[in-house]
Amino acid sequence: MVKFVLLIILTLFTAKETIAGQAVTVRVDSMAVAESSYFAEPPSVTVIPVDFEINETNVKGFITSLKDNFPVQLGAFRMKYNAEAFLTEVRKHIDRNAVMFTEDNLYKVRISRSPEPAEAESQDIVETDNLPAARVNENNSITNDTLIAAESYDDKPGAKPAATVQVMESATLNRGSAGELIIGNNNPWLKRITYFGKSLALINALIITIVICIVSMILLLIFILLNRTRMEKREKLHQYLMERYQELIINYLFGNATPDDFRPIASDTYRRQVLIDQMIDVSINLKGDEAKKLLGLYKHLGLDRDSIERARDHRWHKKIKGFRELAFMNIKDANDSIYKALNSSNEILRMEAQIALVRLGDDNAFDFLSHLERPFSLWEQISLHELIVQHNLPVPQFRQWLNSKNTTVVMFALRMIREFKQTEAEEAVHDTLMHPDPSVKQLAIQVAGDMNMRSTLETMKHMYKFQDYNVCLEIIRSMGKMPDLSMLGFLKLVLDKEDDVQLQIEATKAIENNGEEGVRALVKIMKSEYKNYNIIVRHVLDRRIF
After folding, report:
1. Is the pTM of this model over 0.90?
2. Cα→Cα distances 453→331, 431, 459, 483, Å
């Protein structure tokens, strides 16, 4: 009876072979699987041969008939875990070559014919017996993810279905059509990578970036080590040559060495530069005949040509080195290049040119001030003053630059007049009080007060009314430095008429500096009926306040 029922069911399935795409619902352990017809014959085959031998397999109520030449597709799934669960269930009941593979972006489960031994070695069978059952839904049923996937294959003897050739490993299934890793898909370390079908271009880029970074770090480390070794060797050589050449120079100046002893040294560029540096270091402490003898050796070896060439170089750091060498060796052949550097936009180059011209200017060391067009910064002024003091250079009459068009040069001249107490420049300072630049005017008033130039008092008095606040404040302070009773009335007027507290305080201090006469005038002011500035007068007269 059972065989009769099975025969009827098989007949029904065979009758539907010519109808493509009809869906049928089967149950595998209470799991509903929507599946297409399992035997879609090729268009050329319409009749089953009489000697067709049916081979039947029952999968919990699902009957499959298979001849060796015909693969049977059991399901097609969009979700991989559904396909794996179905394949596991099929393998429990079918002693056939059940496989899972990807085709047309679907995961398909088929029962193929038993492969020959040669074919078995070439096929990659997906082993999923040990897959966890946890991927099945909680209700222990697979969702209707199966698609109609009835396919027909050529039943020619020996023909191998194309899908069987395309069977892939589970690792390939994980990646799908995502791409190839740059280090190869067969690497065992990559078997655990699951990228869910996305592109692996980012992983490839990261691998390439890491490799490039590692190679760059190694090359950089090698370069640093080699460069450090080279620098250490060069430093040791430099120290050795310095000691040797210094000893040779001293022996030439005070011993029996001759210029011919320096010829081997002067033939090498690096040693030649070390020799120049040592000559400059020695020349700092030499004067008289020894300095002339060393200069003769410098020119005899042609080292002056090297310095002149550097002074005329277009690179600013080379120019500076050339300027220093020429200045210390007192060689004036490149003064034209040094004068051009005075108005350079490079502040360091300007400063070095100024120092070099001061050293090279025997008669008028500060003549460069007449050619200076760029601003003469306060730092440059301080450096030049230190140079005068340290090297005991002759101090010129700075009043000659009070008429300069460069206001910074005028201010430098005023500061040097005050610094070196050049009182003979009083008339020139007096004329500078009317300079159009307020900062120059303020400094001139300050210098006049510091040097007690009383001839400027009347001029300050008359110009007070037309000046800005800072200049007015400096005028009152300078009057306090040069006490004069003739200015007492003017100072009282400032105290009475000005509203600015600082001006009133400075005026009160200037009145007090006139001695007893000034103190009496302040006491009289305190007793007057004007009380608004009495507190200022008390503040100034309080001896506890300094």
Report:
1. no
2. 42, 12, 11, 11
